[in-house]
Structures are given as C-alpha cells and as structure tokens.
Amino acid sequence: MASQDILINWAPQETRVAIVENGAVQELHIERTLERGLVGNIYLGKVTRVLPGMQSAFIDIGLERAAFLHVADLHTSSGFGSRRADDAPPLPIERQVFEGQTLTVQVIKDPIGTKGARLSTQVSIAGRMLVFLPQDNHIGISQKIGSPELREQLRSRMQALVGKPEDGGGGGFILRTNAEEASDTELADDIAYQRKAWSLVRERAQTQPAGTLLHQDLSLAERVLRDLANEQTHSIRIDSRLQFEALQAFGRTYMPATVAKLEHYRGERPIFDLFGIEEEVAKALARRVELKSGGYLIFDQTEALTTVDVNTGGFVGARNFDDTIFKTNLEAAGAIARQLRLRNLGGIVIVDFIDMNREEHQQAVLSEFRKQLARDRTKTTVSGFSQLGLVEMTRKRTRESLNHMLCEPCPTCEGRGQIKTARSVCYDILREILREARQFSPKEFRVIASPAVVEMLLDEESVHLAGLSEFIGKPISLSAEAGMNPERYDIVLM
Questions:
Q1: Rounded distance, CA 156 to CA 187, Å?
Q2: What span, in angstroms and rounded, lies between the C-alpha atoms of 352 and 261?
Q3: What fold characterizes domain 4-36+219-277?
Q4: 122 vs 174: CA distance, rounded Å
Q5: pLDDT above 70 for 168
Q6: Do residues 233 and 6 make contact, with C-beta atoms less than 8 angstroms apart?
Q7: Alpha carbon of residue 253 to chain centroid
Q8: CATH 3.30.70 matches 286-398
Q9: Exposure class string for 355-371: b at 16+ Cβ within 10 A, else e
Q10: Looking at domain 422-493, which of 3.30.70.100, 1.10.10.10, 3.40.1260.20, 3.40.50.2300 is its CATH number?
C-alpha cells in the first residue's frame, strides 16, 4: 500500500482533513463547529423534576434547556429498559430516580426547537471498530457481518481479548462491520482506548459537580489519530500550534504510536493551497471530471442513486477505436474509485463505461475497478457488467456526501439543473393574463418579470402581446426587475 500523508487545516469554525497518497488527494473530511451535535456526549446530570404521569424526568446537564429522560431509557443491573428478571412490567420511574439525584447520562438525541436533548443512562463509547458498553458483559456482533461461522470466530477472538472481570476485563462490546477483517492488535488497541476513556469518565464523575461534561465524542482532528492514521501514514501535518499541542496530549494518552508522526506546519501559505487541496475540493463539487487522456466523467447524484457516465472526449491516442475505448475505461476505473472517496458517495452507484466489444477488455476494466475500490476504507460491493453494459455497485453510507455538506439546491432552478427559457415564461404570462381577464376586469394589467422576459415581450413577442391586449380590451404594461428569478413573474391588477 502506498505511503500516505494527512493534512489538517484547522480554524475555529471548521476543520478540514485531506489524505494524500503519492501527491494525489484520496479522501476529504470536513467538520463544522456549529454543526457538531451533542449525541454521544456523556454528562453528570442532576434530576430536577420527575413526572410520573409521563414516566419521564427532566435532567440538568448544564445546557440552556433541561434534558429529557424516559423510563424506557433507564439502565439497571437487570438489563436495559428497567424490566425485571421475572418479565414483570418496568418499575415506575418515580421508584428509580428522585429529585436532586445525580446520574451519569448520555445524549441519544440532539435538542430540537424548544425540546431539550433526550438522554439515556445506558452509556456506550464508540471506537474505530468496536462499541464499548461498560455496564454490560456480553459480546455482540453486527448483523451485517457475514456467515454464522465468521460471527462465532469473531466472538471467540473478542472473548479472549476482553478477558475475565476478575483479571481486569469485563464490559460488553459490539463489533462494528469494519471489524470484520481487523487483526487482534487493532481490536486490542480499540479495547484499550475505550477502557481508558471510561476510566476517565468515572474519575470525573466522582470529582466534578452536576452539569459537567464528562466525555465528548472525538473531534475530527482527534478521529484522525484514532480512525485514519495507520502503518502507512508517513506524517500528520496540522497548521494550528494550539491544536498540534492538543493532539500531542491526546495521542500520548490514547494513541502513543501516532505522536511521532505529528508535525506542526509553519509555512506562510495556507496548507491546503500549498498542496493543491483547494483545487481538488472544487473539482470534487463539479459535475464533470476531466481525465488525463482527454476523456471525461459525468457524475449525477440523485435521491436513490449516483450515476457515472464515461466518455472518450478528445482522446484519439490509440491505434484503433477499440484500444481507445479500453484505455479510457481503464483510466476511468481508477478515477471513479478516487472520486467516490473524495465525494463520499454512498448507496447505489451505476457506472456506464463506454461499450466494449471484447470480453477480455470488459474483465480487465472490471478487475482494475475492483482493485482501485479495494483501497477504500468504506465497504464496497461490485457486480459484473449487466446485459445493458452497466456496472452496478454499492458503497456504504458513512456520512453526508461532500456535495450535500458544502452545497444546497439552487434557489433559481430548485435543484432541477435547468430553468425555463424566456420564451416559455412569456407564454406562461400570456396565458395567465387571459385567465385573469376572464375573472376580473381591472383598468390595466401590469407584468413584473425578469429583464430577459420583459425584453422578449417587447421585441420578439410584441405582436402576441399586442394581440392579447386588443382581445381582452385592456392595456398591458411591463416592468423589469433586475434581481427577479427568470422563471418568476407577477401580474398586478391595476
């Protein structure tokens, strides 16, 4: 695997991370401060009010509004949801909590509008491949992990790594899907990190007052050390001294092997400008992606799926047309795999490679595509060529795509990608005036529209406008508004 460098551009409002391999950007990660939620945060809360009628309690965790704890989200020694061993109904909340009591709680739903955060006393700490449940003792396996044999094998490995409670082990774990191919060393590192984090939570809960944040889900910069850095990582450069020192302290505590790779970037030019990352961000938001050979890709993202169309463009470098198509498709295979990572496109992806007549060419392109996708840390599955010559694949959704994170639908076309022509809007206006004239009898109709529409009504469509005015027996005046949406217009009855 190629050596990689990780670049971190930090600002108070936003953190951006780029993973670079052999000078090419492979992944982009962005986190905005105001958009970081509270889900996963652990607080020392204080019960301010118990509501037996709602089987709920309000908990002060130091936020603007009190948080909400339902009886179903209470965890007891007998299990989750406060159900007793004899399968009797859950104990009423008033018999489990009382006003003034302090509880260690975790946010499971962010505050929305006037509603406070929703809490649970079932605490979990997420890691790279595992979820730690300190109040339980079972080993769980994600339902998405393969065969029963593989699940049992993973469970046996985890039980050996976790150890027995009397030996300092204990606590429950759930294996996530990306733990399917993890080594024992990787799993052991995750276990050690999570147990250390829980140990700090317990220490703070004993010494800090109610309303204190005991544990916060890691920031993007911290997740770089936990999730993104690996044996192939050559350096981790960050352009903020404050964050560099914070990462050093975090790394010494949880990930000592990564500390030596940390570097503080001191250059005058912004770190993303120096390494050409800003250009890559702009390209990753574009619909069209140019290939070095002269061909190009077209990406279209919809609600249900993403389509990728491969075109030869101006590439005429091969001896014959079949070779031209084959070389373009080979280059496109690598470019598509990289763009899926850069754009973080998930779900169903349909790739329309240029049609190839030779079976060996199809298999070579498919093999190259799978090889490039194998570098993706997100799980992908690829089918062969369909009867229509399309390649269907899926990529697991892990977070919002780059386009959804940085962009919003155009207010003019409302996400359609196109708008009506000025002539179409003119005809809409003429029909609307005729409709209004049949219901009302004003002295005059005044049309307010964009300059392009008004200009067409005064020029190419002036005969039709005059004919309509004569037909309804009313004058029609025009007013251009510079900032008006090209598709919008107002008809004022004077």
A1: 13
A2: 41
A3: Nucleotidyltransferase; domain 5 (3.30.420)
A4: 14
A5: no
A6: yes
A7: 28
A8: no
A9: ebeeeebbebbbebbee
A10: 3.40.1260.20
- Distance, in Å, from the CA atom of 228 to the CA atom of 377, rounded to the nearest integer, reads 9
The CATH fold assigned to 125-213 is Ribosomal Protein S5; domain 2 (3.30.230)
What is the signed CA dihedral for 312, 317, 321, 324, rounded to 10 degrees? -50
d(CA 118, CA 107): 6
Structure tokens at 27: 């992944």
Q: How far apart are CA 425 and CA 488, in angstroms?
A: 8
Report the range out of 108-112, 158-162, 342-346 with the highest average pLDDT.
342-346
Rounded Cα distance between 69 and 120, Å, is: 6
Q: Where do the domains of the chain lie?
A: 4-36+219-277, 42-120, 125-213, 286-398, 422-493
pLDDT value of residue 82? 45
Task: Provide the percentage of residues in the chain whose pLDDT is more than 90.
Answer: 56
Rg (the chain; Cα; Å): 30
User: Which CATH class for the 42-120 domain?
Assistant: mainly beta
- pLDDT class of 87 with cuts at 50, 70, 90: low
pLDDT for 200: 92
Q: What dihedral do alpha carbons 237, 243, 249, 252 form, nearest 10°? A: -20
> Are domains 42-120 and 422-493 of this chain identical in fold?
no
Tokens of 431: 């029909």
